[in-house]
Amino acid sequence: MVQPSLPEPEEGDHGPMANWPTGRLLSIAGRLVEQAWIAALADHGLSHAGFIALHLIGTGSPSQTELASQAKVEAQTMSRTLDKLERDGFIRRSRDPKDARRHVVSRTVEGEKAWDSAKHLEAEVFPTVSHPQELRDALIELINDGTRKRWQS
Prior knowledge:
This protein is mainly α and 153 residues long. The protein has a domain at 32-120: Arc Repressor Mutant, subunit A, CATH 1.10.10. The protein is 57% helix and 10% strand. The protein is built from 7 helices and 2 strands, in the order H-H-H-H-E-E-H-H-H. It has a two-stranded antiparallel sheet. 13% of the residues are buried. The model has no long low-confidence stretch (mean pLDDT 86).
């Protein structure tokens, strides 16, 4: 189904959205960006969670627990993400040579290729905004505040 094209809003013209609550704006913007992001990552054989894991693994060998903590997800969630990445041949889990009780995660050659092909997608997929650093700062503030509230003991 072809979506009808909408006229481009003029500078400062936000139409009916000008009166929407900030939470609604953030939610809709998040969904639109997420849909484009998921589709772009799927073209590279990755999910959003898999992309995050490959990013956090980097060239090191963190443990699954460290990855979950860095990604701000439960260990079980990270485990499922790593299971899929391992099945797809993007990562390998092995015993830590310094501590046999610990397992570490590393990218495979295929994982490196997937990471290299997808790591610049953000610039292609995400819309440009007039003040990107201000947006980033505000999003980080929202995430940090939400994380503190969610993970408090």
